Automatic annotation (TrEMBL):
Residues 7-123 form the Fido domain. One of its GO terms (molecular function) is kinase activity. Transmembrane segments: none annotated. It comes from the Archaea. PROSITE patterns: FIDO. InterPro entries: Doc (IPR006440), Fido (IPR003812), Type_II_TA_Toxin (IPR053737). Gene3D superfamilies: Fic/DOC protein, Fido domain. This is Fido domain-containing protein. It comes from Halococcus thailandensis JCM 13552. Pfam families: Fic. NCBIfam families: DOC_P1 (TIGR01550). The lineage of its organism: Archaea, Methanobacteriati, Methanobacteriota, Stenosarchaea group, Halobacteria.
Length: 134
């Protein structure tokens, strides 16, 4: 397992705090009383069930926004945490899509399952027809 390589719940919260400062978010902070516990149980532990870093990254990308711990920027936090995690694993991530399409995929990550997201992170291939029209 790659559990020790995954970001901790505290590291996810810290990354979010950095995003809050960088984007000067209107709605700051967390939505729940125990964000670190929730992130550990709903994000980090499920990600640790995978041996493959691509799947771990997919869980981070899928679960951080769906858990909705933060008042704002859950998707931005998920993207930043996922990209940093994969980078820390020494993996290069390249997408054939333009920035706008990548943003649409990240915003709609919940339309895809973990397998599809892992494949996208690994190869850049994903079924864009699942995305709603612009």
């Amino acid at each position: 397992m790659v559990e020790n390589d995954l970001p901790t719940a505290a590291e996810i919260v810290t990354m979010h705090e950095e995003i809050e400062k960088e984007y000067d978010l209107k709605y700051k902070g967390v939505r729940i009383a125990a964000p670190k516990l929730t992130l550990r149980e709903k994000v980090v532990e499920p990600a640790s069930e995978y041996d493959d870093p691509w799947h771990c990254g997919a869980v981070l990308l899928f679960r951080i926004p769906s858990t909705h711990v933060f008042e704002d920027a859950n998707k931005r936090t998920a993207w930043a945490v996922t990209m940093e995690y994969l980078n820390d694993q020494g993996l290069e991530v390249e997408f054939p899509q333009d920035d706008e399409t990548i943003e649409r995929i990240v915003r709609r990550a919940g339309l895809f399952d973990i397998e599809e997201l892992a494949e996208w992170l690994k190869t850049g291939e994903i079924d864009e027809s699942k995305l709603p029209e612009r």
